[in-house]
Design brief:
alpha/beta, 2 domains, six-stranded mixed sheet, 11 helices, elongated
Length: 417
Amino acid sequence: MRIVHTSDWHLGHALHDASRELEHNRFLGWLLDALVDEAADALVITGDVFDSANPPASALAAWYDFLAAARARCPALDIVVIGGNHDSPARLDAPERVLRPLGIHVIGGLSRQADGALDLDRMLVPLRDAGGQVAALCCAVPFLRVADLPRGIADAEGDPLIEGVRVIYGQVFDAARARRRPGQALVATGHCYMVSTKVSRLSERRILGGNQHALPMEIFPDDLTYVALGHLHKPQRVGPGDRIRYAGAPIPLAMNEAAYHHQIAVVDLDGEALAGVRARPVPRAVDLLRVPARGALPLDELPAALTALEDTRDGEPLAERPFLEICVALSRPEPRLRKIVEDALAGKRPRLVKLEVEHTGDGAALSESLPGADLKDLDPEEVFVRRYRHDHESEPPAPLIAAFRELLDQARSGGAP
């Protein structure tokens, strides 16, 4: 059978207040075509469907439109969705009684019965092949919050969080082993942070008490044919081979993710064995640019660099124009910086979403520049000058010093400025 694994859509996301709706809509349309083209038997979405617990109406509409279109175009497709740390479990789970009869299995949060036991009937999802036979059991475990974990236990190193996760997964895996029939594969899901993985510091929230709680590979035993993971936006394998894999986000969710090769994972199973995993690249609808590509550009070089950018295309919608981040190195204050940038970008195709300033001063704290000095004994003007040097490599200009002295005199005399 064939499974398509995707994750971390973050519907409703904005990049520095710029909407990503066009990019998400393009991806969802492309994904529908890919499901048909790949003749997929199952679609597994491993968390962070939405960017926030209270997504905008447009994001909810995109989600339900996608599910309806997927069911119409792929009537036999099994769909399994787990909640991520950005999702509201209650919001994802709310339409479960409507979606489940349609073959759409959504597990927004850890599912328990009235007596507190895991609701294994809901978390163990049969996946059918093209002939309608159950070819795999999916252990659909969503993002585990600290409150979901059993109390009073710890692993060999005294970590109750990692051991709690191990216990939850162990119960689900044991139940799956008892239910599966010979020849059926075991597939697992997770929305978590694993050891030896690469994290985007700008867009991935700490989870499970902080990203320092990296789960060991042993959480997922060798009899699992494939482990579909979410949370990390960079697609990557965990450990050797393709058995444990992050699908990654379909679009860059921060400027530092511009170089990621966004993709879906196409997973082929042959009985209980993993026949292969293939990455299918997701086409990028909107480019991300940074000036300069790395570091910061001196102010006097900035206008030429921006003038060299591509000119606006006639009739192109704003939503299709590239995002632009600029980082400028300033050796002195420049109150006209925004106007300088806007003037240089007039008629240019990229749209500015972030203007960052990198100061070229020594960066020294007051205690470093005046070691051993007591603050109460320092001259206020000296403190002001030292603070200026912290950001700027030159001395404060004479008019600025004069203005500071005037304010200082007024403060000392008790007069109004």
